[in-house]
Amino acid sequence: MTRFKTILVTGGAGYIGSHCVVDLLEAGYEVVAIDNFANAVGDDQGSPALQRAEQITGKNITFYKADLLDKPQINDIFDKHEVDCVIHFAALKAVGESMQQPLLYYQNNLLGMLNLLEVMRSHNCFQMVFSSSCTVYGEPEHLPITETHPTGKITNVYGRTKYFIEEMLKDLSAAEKRWNIISLRYFNPVGAHPSGLIGEDPTKEFTNLMPFMAQVALGKKPVLTVFGNDYNTPDGTGIRDYIHVMDLANGHVAALKLLNDNQVGLKVYNLGTGKGVSVKELVDVFERVTDTKIPLQYVSRRLGDITAMWADATLARDELGWTTKYTIEEMCTDFWRWQTMNPDGYPKNTKTTVIISNGNS
User: Fold this and answer.
1) Which one is catalytic: 29, 64, 105, 158?
2) Which cofactor does it need (predicted)?
């Protein structure tokens, strides 16, 4: 079987996308990345995260500022490159925002995927790794969560978009046997590249826990807001399966190898460590390894949040040959290195962020 050569990465300038690009380049793939900067820092001049990915690897990335809602624009990119496989990260992803702006999420995430699939098919590209989420499981019926756990009883709009896309991929792969798709259900990505050159730089107020925590540790924010301390958990705070972003990136390279060597139709894998860590426990570890103090402010639970969730990632180990390597201490240490080296995140040339564009902005 011929080896995949060129990988198109949608959302390549984002947090997970940029780390995955580093792993792809180091694995010998050529990368074409696209991003509309809805969730990432950048402008018409390009992406600082991807420029640094080039610096880390010593390899070049072809980048386009592009929006999946602009189908002709995506078609042009496929015309220019012989794409062997697509890794699809691009999506709006803030749970809280999704509850406030559901139509924005349905438009961006669902229509973007439809356009992408149609353009792929018209260019005879049927290989995809899809960035899914453990949110498709909803409130867990049992722990740890295996891939056979029921999906669909989802507590937020963001998770529903991931679920609807998985259903779309199910129908597509059943109807057209040429498709070869792996859906990776991520648990909670944290950390940063060990170089400290790339990391998570949120563009919205709806931010993830670790960047918020680091901002408090740096003295840029007064307290860490913790949503809920009355959950049915040992310390009352929610429990999640935190996974180092480089372990996550490595899972995509493992998925590519499986797609390259096998016709799988549609396969689903959990990517997590298999260990649950509470918000309070994560704060304690972060304080210890960074020698900082993080004051906490407990507020009421957020709409759409669940009590506890962690993965059973045995299937990914057995079929992808993938396991996690990084500890929770290393996740905190690597993120702190990124944050202290880049206290204001990436250099910002512009203040505007494109959320949804018609291709002209």
Assistant:
1) 158
2) NAD(+)
